[in-house]
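Write out the 3D structure for:
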Amino acid sequence: MQQHSAAVALIRRATRLWRDEGMTSLLRHASSFLAYILGRQFTFRRVFLYEHSLVPRDRSSFLPRLESWELRVLHSNTDADAVVAEGLEDLRMSFIYATRSLNNGAIAFCVYVETKLVHVGWLAVDAQGKRAVDRMPFEVAFESGQACTGGTYTNPRYRGKGLMPYGYYERFEYLRARGFTSSRNSVEVDNIASQKAHARFDPTIYGLGRYRKVLWWHSWQVEQLPGGPRKGMPANFSGSYK
């Protein structure tokens, strides 16, 4: 059933791209999708491992630079259906695995400008949801009030407007209001923009993860950072962690 849902979403996405943006855009997205599928079979990733304390923060410091927007929190595909019924863009049309992620307990934080989906970020409050949010197998102590975030995406036309920090603020507040005390996530070593967004929350970077996957074989190693855990930004950004 999940594979069928993903296939239907993929067909709908392709039809929409062809109709709205033409064959060139469809081919470009098809190439990206093929790269994504291959990446799931052959992967080498280096990620910083983050832990955020869920403490009260001033919301006004994290608002996006937009005249207006609307945040919707989706806990299920029923919630997603209700948003679509209101005329808002369907998250599942752009992210073909969103249906499965929602079914597995992941929670989507969607930011809309008018009816357009411009930003999405995911969180998980249990191990099943985490597998949908972030495939990196770092430890999360869900039973001790810890949660996990990941899967953040911003529409290219809306990048540079502060949507990533805002999305994280809302996710952290959601967790804090429900009694969670910390949240973990991973950030690619080369993703400087994401590292800067996270630095605004004064996180602890507690390690470096190396993930390798070739078909059914995979390995995961966690290394200490030179000098131990760091606050804020990694030392020398990503250049020291090849």
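Residues 106 and 129 are 5 Å apart (CA to CA).
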